[in-house]
Task: structure prediction
Amino acid sequence: MFANFRQAMAWVHTWFGLVLGFVLMAAFFFGSLSVFDREIDRWAVPETRFPAQPMPSFDQVLWPVYQQLRAHPLDMAATARRVEGEIPHPDTLPLVSLYAYTTHRDPVLQIGGEFAIPNKPLDASDDHQHVHGWASIDPRSGTYLSQDKLQIGSEFFYPMHYSLHFHWQDLGYWIVALAGLVMLVALVSGVVMHRKLFRELFTFRPHKRTQRSVLDLHNLTGVVALPFHFFFAFTGLVIFAGIYFPLGETMLEPLAKQHQVLEAERTGLPHEPAGEAAPMASVDAMVVEAKRRWDLRGMPGEVGYLFMDHLGDANGYVSIYRAGNDQVALVGQGVHFKASTGEVLREDPPPTPVFAINEFLTGLHLQHFKHWLLRWLYVFGGLAGCVCIATGFVFFVEKRKKQLAGHSARLIRWVDALAVTTVTGMVVATLAILVANRLLPADLPARGLWEERIFWYSWLVMLAHALWRSKAVASGLISPAWREQSWLVVLLAVSAVLFNWIGTGDHLVKTLNDGYWPVAGVDLFLLACALVAACAAKILRRREGLQQPLSPRNSGLQDNLEVARG
Amino acid sequence: MEPTALGIALRTLASLLGGYAFLWGASSLGIAGLVALGMAYEEARTLCMLLAFLLYLIIFLWVWATHHFVRACVILVAGAGLFSAMAVVLQQQLTAGV
Result:
């Protein structure tokens, strides 16, 4: 179909990159924001603006907290579709397993658990007979954080970057996966397309024509951050491999089940409950023992993850994992106890090479360890990815602006409008949810849902605006939507900072003075965003003034040569 | 040479679905094979998934670049069926008597 390898790669790069680029923008942008998800949470939920807390006492604080935990309405509804009959009232469902997870950046503690249900599954092979409950609590007092309060960083931006909040049939995950694969494809094909890769790496001509300088910037951000982009797209796929290749739940289910039984025998951690009730020994004493063992290994640490299975059963066990502040793996060095007696069942050996590689790759992607410089590099690496994708769109449009005919005029108007929507429009939507978060009444029922709606609606409005203003593109001009939405970014970013000040009293002078970086950092970043957007708007204004509408025939030899290069 | 709409549709299907089906079979066989050689299931699965996504990239590019498109399709489809069947047979032997 193609004359040679390079041409095939150029075609794949252009068209797959274009179509999936819009998804990739969201994955890279919200992924970059997720690097500071916990900090954005503090900004968005002011009652959680206190220092990070260690895992609290289980016996004193957490056990009473778990007594109040109930199955989440969302999972009740999802499970109801998978089982026969009606699920009993959440108050009557017994908690059979529980977990708590915290990191060095968490003032609030994430908890959750599984509740047993008596219902039979509709699909006999579905052996997941549980409904899940989850919540965030204040570990100092054990009080629950209202589910109406949306932790925008970890509950909205973070899942956005891998699921697009599109949960029907997990389709969002699949679309992002396809985009992830296309990112890998675009990186390899992009390198193949360029003969003089090394020279182009150092080429940036910002004062040349838009098309030239945009291509330079595309190559620069693509090549300089290439290992970074490759790593994140690849590990993103690996993290959700279980969703993308559900072999253990389908074709290889017998083998996976056999493994579970063998694994339970090997580790001594029962896979099934015994069916007889048993009391629970002090979990705090188990934590002391686990910490003593970590000390002995020369790696003292705090508890990052606590898990208990078969609660109240003679086979019940407690797993205590060390927080991964100082290692790439999220948590590690698990010590497991018999719940009824507190005796040690097992201490995890060091991971095998395969698991160690997997932990390293996924841990480096998720970055729950403590390294603030690397954290910032992630943000800028991610934003470089956004620049690379966005300049790809702009180059696509600029290259075709010179040879407009009826059909392609419509195409590039759409591409330009979608580019506006996924660049400035996405930033507008992101800022809109932050502004909404500060402006909606504190006790509004389903407050979080309204914040999410405002995010989606404002994004939709930006798309409509971009389409409406795209007529200029068909005359070879810059769409004014870019500039107008940039000004909206300035307005919203500054408003968010102001409303945070008015609503909470935590203005920058105060937060900087107190060294309270989660809120100071978000505010500073918002102001930086406003500044960049204002500069962009001004440059766009100037460029718009310099341009003359082109007639469709006005294409030079130079441009044709560049088209040939892809 | 301008790519045709049909050619693009076929290569898109072959590179994404064909590649997926091939990797489904290859990963299954890889996992079953490694388990047969004594590796734990979870470890085998992790290793095969790490390799599967890299292989997916290679298969995708190969399908788009090759001049022998039909041959590529045959390899993907036949590989998917053959590897899956072999994985199921191997699994039956591994789990027999459990």
